[in-house]
Amino acid sequence: MDLALQLLFTGIGIGAVYALVALGFVLIFRATNVVNFAQGEFSMVAAFMMVVFAVDLDWPYWLSFIVSLIGMAILGAVFNLGVYYPLRNRSFLPVIIATIGASIFLANTVLALYGPQPQVLQGWFDTPGIQLGPVYLDSQYLLIIAVTIVLVVFQYWFFEHTLIGKKLQATSQDKEMASLLGIPVSMMIMLTFVYSALLGGIAGILVAPILFVSIQMGATIALKAFAATIIGGFGDVAGAIIGGLALGVIETFGAAYVSVPYKDGFAFLVLVAFLVFRPQGIFGERVAEKA
Amino acid sequence: MKLTRRAFSSALTATLAGPALIGRAGAQGATIKIGMCAPVTGPAAESGRYAQIGAKIALDAVNKAGGVLGKQVELIIEDDQTTNPGIVLAFSKLAAQNDIVAFLGSIRSTQVHAMSPDVLKLAKPVMIGGTDPALTHMGNPWLFRFRPNDSYSGRVLADYGVNTLGKKNWAIVHSTDAFGTAGGKALADALGKIGANVALDQGYANQSQDFTPVVLAIKQSGADILGSYITFENDLGIFARQLRQLGVNIPYVGSPSIVNITALKLAGPALFGTFGVADYAEDSSDASKAFGKLYRDIAKIAPDNQSAWTYDAVNILCAAINKAGKTDPGAIREAILATKGFPGAEGEYNFDANGDGLHGYNVVRNEKGNVVFDKHIEQAD
Hints:
- The complex is a heterodimer of chains A (291) and B (381).
- Chain A has 291 residues and is mainly alpha-helical.
- Chain A contains twelve helices and two strands.
- Chain A has a two-stranded antiparallel sheet with strand order 1-2.
- Chain B folds into two domains: 185 residues, Response regulator (Rossmann fold); 143 residues, Response regulator (Rossmann fold, 3-Layer(aba) Sandwich), CATH 3.40.50.2300.
- Helices cover 46% and strands 20% of the residues of chain B.
- Chain B is built from twelve helices and 14 strands.
- Classes of the chains: A mainly alpha (291), B alpha/beta (381).
């Protein structure tokens, strides 16, 4: 039982990271009907920004966090203008390829600017964790879970109870109709990219003290987050959260009780099962219709 | 004068091909070229940089001393991307340059396995750092190892844990790539021979983000000592931290990656008090100290095995070519195999018929982040 509790906590913690990145996938998919394969690199770039501000420049952690998020917002806007906007009237395929290209560009830019060395980023708290009975609660995982809950609540409130949120939803549902109603569609899509860059950035900064800051960290997280998005249902916010958490828990328990080397295999086994038996995911609409 | 079609064709061919041929001949004559596959990008890019620095330090010294066969030596580096397909591609690019006389391969066994068939086809000497014992025992006469193989590290780890630390109930954690699998097996075999028990033999896939299941398995196994063969430094860093967080504080002896610079930086205090076998230990010999000083002056960081093996490989390769008196691959091979008593940074090289140059390991301990030499254990066979 103690073992299961420890695994459950860790699984939820790592699953929350997948969920945060998956949320970014979902938001952009809803707004533009394409998958942004650079979502993972947003996490990596934000983590490197934190290293520059908090470690290299020795700024206070909170200030580094805010400046990094401002940087991510700018990156999201530039990404929209440079990668999505020029291709907005083309089919989804060129846009997807452009996001893959942008992902490679971001990874190599950071490599050229910062070098290949993995970096250490301290966590938000001085205390590494607390022992609660038989379970060790890593303070960074606790923070990740808490931030995920806050962001999910915020996102629900933002999309359901604010005018701008409703405009974003209208844009994602039918861009032409939204435009006829006077909603600035391009601005809404810009905001979506900014918000998803922030989500990816927050995920990267939160997970960096656990996984270290490296060029590869974005790709590692994004692959699982993408799987989580499909499991949850492409285009569904609740699905991204449930999918991410489920993936984290399944792979952790699978590793502990079946086989550690095949840990990643369990995650993708579930993915394949969903693609075969329920391609629309837990909550999502049919993928075939979207594509 | 009438310009015939044949004369025109000949002139055109000479104009186009001439400069290339002259350049080629000039290039062949000007320098001795050594190819190097190194991880410039990918997870091991940082250690790849150390490897390049080690090779270049040796190269500079060789060139200052007059070079090889009276010519300067040039290093041609290709990025292996820290992947198996990457090193195959990098090696094929280098192999296409006929004037490269020998090569430096990878420190990662899995990559050496991947490139080995092409090495066999090319039939030119390749210096390697991969420690899977099979690499020099699978019928490829062109691979020469500049680190002790894992049959030695396994025996030294087992010997130190059982006889020096007095622990007989082991947990073994290893990656599932060629290096980790071979190392884990070598350790388990060595423990079996000296009557120790393996309570847990646990593999994991490289680039794992979470080691909680592995750490909990160690806890449940009841082992009183941990031995590991972990390939990547970030995996080692995450594993070591979770080990301490989840309360596993049994003695820990690890393969060489446990004392490399990147791992020490990433894991920090989580690796304090651990032991490791290290092919390179700065205080183990005069040659090691001399390399350490050179490396610190240039790289401004402490040296480790990533840079030491390439330093030795370039030095011994250049000495062998000089000894052979020509760049014929067969002659270089014979000269490398004839190398005995060569004082390298990693230890004294005595090549055997398989191409293994080193036959022992240093045991070191991590004292608050400083790697301290304990003792050298040489194996007779």
